[in-house]
Known about the structure:
Oligomer: heterodimer
Radius of gyration of chain A: 36 Å
Helix content of chain B: over 70%
Order of helices and strands of chain A: HHHHEEHHHHHHHHHHHHHHHHHHHHHHH
Structural class of chain B: mainly alpha
Strand content of chain B: under 5%
Distance between the termini of chain A: 125 Å
Number of helices of chain A: 27
Strand content of chain A: under 5%
Shape of chain A: elongated
Structural class of chain A: mainly alpha
Amino acid sequence: xxxxxxxxxxxxxxxxxxxxxxxxxxxxxxxxxxxxxxxxxxxxxxxxxxxxxxxxxxxxxxxxxxxxxxxxxxxxxxxxxxxxxxxxxxxxxxxxxxxxxxxxxxxxxxxxxxxxxxxxxxxxxxxxxxxxxxxxxxxxxxxxxxxxxxxxxxxxxxxxxxxxxxxxxxxxxxxxxxxxxxxxxxxxxxxxxxxxxxxxxxxxxxxxxxxxxxxxxxxxxxxxxxxxxxxxxxxxxxxxxxxxxxxxxxxxxxxxxxxxxxxxxxxxxxxxxxxxxxxxxxxxxxxxxxxxxxxxxxxxxxxxxxxxxxxxxxxxxxxxxxxxxxxxxxxxxxxxxxxxxxxxxxxxxxxxxxxxxxxxxxxxxxxxxxxxxxxxxxxxxxxxxxxxxxxxxxxxxxxxxxxxxxxxxxxxxxxxxxxxxxxxxxxxxxxxxxxxxxxxxxxxxxxxxxxxxxxxxxxxxxxxxxxxxxxxxxxxxxxxxxxxxxxxxxxxxxxxxxxxxxxxxxxxxxxxxxxxxxxxxxxxxxxxxxxxxxxxxxxxxxxxxxxxxxxxxxxxxxxxxxxxxxxxxxxxxxxxxxxxxxxxxxxxxxxxxxxxxxxxxxxxxxxxxxxxxxxxxxxxxxxxxxxxxxxxxxxxxxxxxxxxxxxxxxxxxxxxxxxxxxx
Amino acid sequence: xxxxxxxxxxxxxxxxxxxxxxxxxxxxxxxxxxxxxxxxxxxxxxxxxxxxxxxxxxxxxxxxxxxxxxxxxxxxxxxxxxxxxxxxxxxxxxxxxxxx
Lengths: 663, 100
């Protein structure tokens, strides 16, 4: 555990925040404004509204780079600012930003990838029925992710987190006319919700620790690190929060939604389901890292076990996929597990995990957008209908190849450095099992990426039609991302001073290590994977050579039957038995109560009605009738005949006269 | 000297005739004339009692009654004329709007 005095010495507020820091809240606001503009006046704008999102994201990227520049310039503190939001009893809610090196890196990743995807979609989504709507949700999503990154308190983070979930749902189901897409969207939404519930309870536990006074992340961190909460509570909070991570970052056992999320448009897969949203789970663990560190060590072991299972399982599942996007989806799950494994190895691993998140975002976005260009050309997701595209789509091929090599961990591309750092940490901090798992996963990764490249770009074309290179808005983005992929690794390279570790660190700077034999081993794993893949798939025609493995192949191609277990064990019982039981209950019990109450009311009402009609109305009408009857009698007196009046007059006089005379 | 009771009988007969006329006749002019009979019956009473009691007050009152009767007949005949102009009749049975 890190000593408190060193924490105070290095983590301090920035005294003289730059303009970019003071206005960092604008970074999250700009895409939201763009989304509103696109929504309300997008269809009447030339270009159908894509211009707002692109402009806002470009501005946000410039500001994010400005923020990052502060930390590049050697700043080591943080900047925090907030305004009061609302207050419930003792609980003071605020809306505020917390910017440190980690935030700055995440801001740059999110805004740059999002800008790339916005531009790429100009070509990819051209002529789409809901083109403007697509840009609305894309911008809104970006804004929500930036809120998560910038938030200085857990409730703001939760708000952004949930908006991301909704946007993800909307974008997966973008082409909802196809039933498969809409059910994938529902699956993704509900599966992540299963993780979101523990996440929310985790937030409650943390707020409880503060005595219901604040949800401010730095304050919670301070309370936890100063031992202001029992280990049991902190461990519970950590486990519950990790539930959110499992859901959002698609870790075992809630990983099933991410491959199905590939039903959405490819730019969405690149932005949300590869580079940013799924990384939010990793970011959450990193942001509340002290909670995990101060929890019982078992918590981090659980994190490591989940990551290990996910890493290997997802990499294996990527072997048997025919859909190129699904290969990348399983690869994403596996790489996210890489990051989470890094988290489980303590502060140094946290830096490595974020470094891997940083590099992975770029090359995975590149791979997805490259696969989008391929799909755009051949009108199919299936690699069995691709092949031989190397000459027809040269730019896509070269950029995809760079992305694949980076993902495989071939030096000196980005993936090599980040994987190497994680491996070094695993070796240095004494996690031999994790070290082996990481290494094996690296080998598997290189294998399935080689398979994907060979099946897509080599051999003979097995599809239909004449594929053409994508428009320049798409290839331009591919080239830009490929260039970043080539150089991004060097910011964390130990030979070049490991600058990344000076931006992202936990409480105290870590010394970046370089262990030659680990680097050699990881390079060998990558090259080994590539060579094996090349040997197996060199002569690929139509039948996957791995099918000869028999039972093992069947097991993996059925995704370890996890989906079937969920389907048969959870979804179908709930849909058929539980829902029919609930339906019966609804029909017979609830409806019975409601109908019974209605019938009772009817009986009472008819009694009241009778009373009203007969008694009340009878009394009222009776009075009226009496008045009418007497009136009818009396009206004969009022005949209008003056002489008759005179008769009464005289009669009266005579009567009076008689009376008075008698007296 | 005529005896007072005889005069009172005359007055009562006149008054009764007037009452009958007012209540039974249908001609508006005759009704007015009957009223005149009743008033004069009263006058006879006033004068008769004034003479019997040696008091001038009765005669003074009779003079007042005559004045009022003249005015009353003037107005009454004017009303009858107006009714005749509007309805082309002076049958009081048909003048029955004074109701409800």
